[in-house]
Amino acid sequence: MNISTLLVLVTTISFAVADILVTIPNGKLRGRKEYSQRGISFYAFQQIPYAKPPVGELRFREPLPPDNWNGILDATYNDKSCIQFSNYYNANISNYENEDCLYINVYTPEFPSTNLSLPVMYFIYGGGFLNGAANFEYAGPHYLLESGVIVVTVNYRVGAFGFLATGDKIIPGNYGLKDQQMGLKWVQKNIKYFGGDPEKVTIFGQSAGGSSVAFQVMSKGSKGLFRAAIAQSGSNIVPWAYQRSYKTLAFKIGAALGKPLNEDTDSDKLLAFLRTIPAKQLNTVSTQVYVDNLFIDQMTDGLVFTPVIEPEHETAFITENMYEAIENGRMTRVPLMIGMCSEEQLGKLSDDYFPTEIQNYDNDITLFVSRNMHITDRNKLIQVGQTIHDWYLKGRLEDDKAGTIRYLSDASFTRAIIRHAELQSKFSDVYFYEFSYSGQLGGNTGPFIDGAGKVKHSEDLNYIMTWSNWTGLNNYPKDDILTSDRYRTMLTNFAKYLNPTPEKTSLFQNLIWPKVTPDNFQYLNIDTNLSIQKNPRGEIYQKWLKIYEENAVRPLDTF
Questions:
Q1: List of domains in the chain
Q2: Global confidence as pTM
């Protein structure tokens, strides 16, 4: 290659890169061009600040709008995720961790223009409110972009940084949820510059992301920021998505760092002290406090560092019980798509602590009774616990793995997700699904067990999002590819038309997905063949309804 040819090539490349510019009120951005696995081009604008860095005096405070910048911001990469508890989803996340992490990514299938008006899908990652990231390697948008929607992914604070709370107005908590909300406000203000329609925003998320979606639907401050919601394997009434011992835990962190304080009077002193601690040290200590204070089963009793019900104050995110709010329609009444995998807790079989966990249940029958029932009488706890045990098991848990897994799935995920759909169907359109397709793309390496479903928690996400080890759909069986195309199209149809199957097509076997109604719970079962079914979990779900009705003490927070 001669020098003149090289100069032409360099000039052409430089012009192409420089030409992918977007100007928003905060300043100019430079993006880059990417391609999906099928060779379809899209445009990526990454690591855009949507709030001021939550450091120093902004630690444990609601997010504030970002500053403007001069020149052109390089938005062609993302190398920051929020500090977090663990990195079992993606080891590379540990290389990105930074307290300065409130950034948003925008991916558009067409060259950005204010003349466009594309639907927008706003993704909230899961990870138990303890970990996760919006980085390209963790939440790749490739599949979804092929359906002609804009995809937005957002970092939000997790762990103690996002959910430490003292039960008062000093450290009210829910900072991670407030970050998500701030990101939605950013979308309303800026997405038109990328070709998106701010009136056609759909929020979606999986696991803790699905629970976050439900919290956003409930929060008065999020009203008007989106027109539809998709909650995958999550709800704000699943028992693990609500923190119960937050005040004690917050002060335990202070004590572990050498500052014992009175939890009844010293919230302001705790806040001032914690703001002086280096971020990595605070994360290390809060992680250890988390480990030291594990409940017997946090999945049914409430995880540590999760959302809380705040006292009334100007920037409160939620101030009332979640269950009561949904039951009475106190939420943004938008169309909802919600569902679950066929056996959410199947992954427990490969957990190292599973034998110890089931031994604890065998030794104490009252552990079958979730704390959200608010039963305090020991004799009644034993009675109710034995009743629930007998629905699933004939003897000890260690002798019946299938019954154990079914119980854990229902107690921590499915009963609440079904109930959420049932309650909200009184006030808005609700589409319910069960993801039953077990394929290589989902990572279905087992172990499996007779008598239980075959799709564990998070498998369905692999059919719509790409990950760091993604090698392309062509490397998977044709039924995996078909299921991915179906699931992706259902979600993007919902974002476009507020209906996952707006018309009969061969892709969906000419089925029309019916809405859930209060007196007719129909849903879509997603397997190799699609099918319309009725009453998920059947008789066992009805037993859960009855035992809560007869024994739980109102008001309910979760279910």
A1: 30-351+416-449+456-543 (3.40.50.1820)
A2: 0.95
